[in-house]
Specification:
Elements (H helix, E strand, L loop, with lengths): L3 H7 L4 E4 L2 E4 L5 H14 L2 H18 L1 E4 L2 H9 L8 E5 L4 H15 L5 E5 H6 L4 H14 L4 E11 L2 H6 L1 H18 L3 E5 L11 H21 L8 E5 L10 H15 L7 E4 L22 H15 L4 E3 L12 H4 L4 E4 L1 H10 L2 H14 L10 H8 L8 H5 L3 H21 L6 H7 L28
Parallel strand pairs: 3-6, 4-5, 4-11, 5-6, 6-7, 7-8, 8-9, 9-10, 10-11
Antiparallel strand pairs: 1-2
Helix pairs in contact: 2-3, 2-7, 3-7, 5-7, 5-18, 7-9, 9-10, 10-11, 11-12, 14-18
Amino acid sequence: MKTVKELLQHLSGVVAVDGNKVSVLDEGALPYVVDGLVQTAVFGEGLVRDTARWLIWEIAQAVGVHPSSIHELYMAIGRGDVDKSFTVPAINVRVMNYNTSRAIFRAANKLDVGPILFEIARSEMGYTDQRPTEYVSCVLAAAMKEGYRGPVFIQGDHFQISAARYASNPEAEAQAVKDLMVEAVDAGFFNIDIDTSTLVDLSYLTLDEQQNANYSLCAKLTQFARSIEPEGVTLSLGGEIGEVGHKNSTVEELDAFMQGYRREVGEVAGISKISVQTGTSHGGVVLPDGTLADVSVDFETLRDLSRVARESYGMGGAVQHGASTLPANAFGKFPEVGTVEIHLATNFMNIVFDLLPADLLDQAYAYVRSELANEWKPGMTEEQFIYSSRKRAVGKFKAEWWHMDVESQQKIADALQTQFEFLFDQLNVKETLGVVRSLTTMVQIHKERPLAAVAEAEAEDVSDLAD
């Protein structure tokens, strides 16, 4: 749809718009108009695009689909008010957001799952071509398409500080993360992982000195986040004590970080979880033939870190990153050791690549070879290069993949749903929607109808940041 008039005609009889007020006339018919609405929100231009995004937000509010913060659930876990027998999946939806999110909600509806985080990292926004408002629009539209009702937890993953840019201009790099926070919270991201772990300096002798820059800036960004919260919302914030892919974290490092963080953060509500390193890496370790190396997680360290996070600091527990490519038999162990949250990304993207029609896959790989050759490092096989760089084709071919044939889309959606159901079972989040609803404050937040197109933020150079 190219005009606002066409957009409103598309909704005729289902949704009524009177100025800033949006009313749903026929909720049962809503799934039949969502496809056109979200496609306009993603691929439309100017005012019609922004109006579609506004409509998705307001319709979601009207039917009971609410972007929410998971802070209250995590703090209840930290207090011992909730049985800590499940691990919350945080899913980085990089590829085919609308269809992937639909598969997540179908699996959630089938298994009565409540706590799921839909997330995207600072680094992923550029190469997937998804700024926060578009991302939220796809997730909320998917919820409405699949008939989900309740809280929707959307998270900014790895809102990370670039160590190099911070070293040369700390104020500008901190401001870049603050600006992203504002954009994300305005869009409906009410959960943010603050990642200042890139500033940990192991050259110092004491743990406090090693963690000082990390906890000090994390505290400042926490204070800023609290200053931009919507009324009635307490953002869920996380910190990180060790960069993923580096040395494993220790309880002593957790203590050093939290004690320093608490001194610095003052009276505002602090973080509700802590990300740690226990042996994984983002995207997995790629072998010369393109397959992934086996990775073992130090579950006992993870158990100790989660226990101390809860018992000593009242948080929900420790967070595991870089886990989607672990062996299938590993996932059931995370709830056993008290992991509060697990981040899952690469394997879902791999499923899409594995099932893409041959012509679309060839097109993506040709782009990688021709346009990303500078990423082919000495000693890499072609398989390693393709695997590590192909994610940068996701945004480039977003439109082509969105419009692929229905049969191929269904095959991908079914495979994703099967994987989500498996993970929800292993992470023990089945039949949790009731307790999550009871502990989550769902706030009605209305937005002004756009009268003119809004310029989107320009993409950053985030090539040195983690996913």
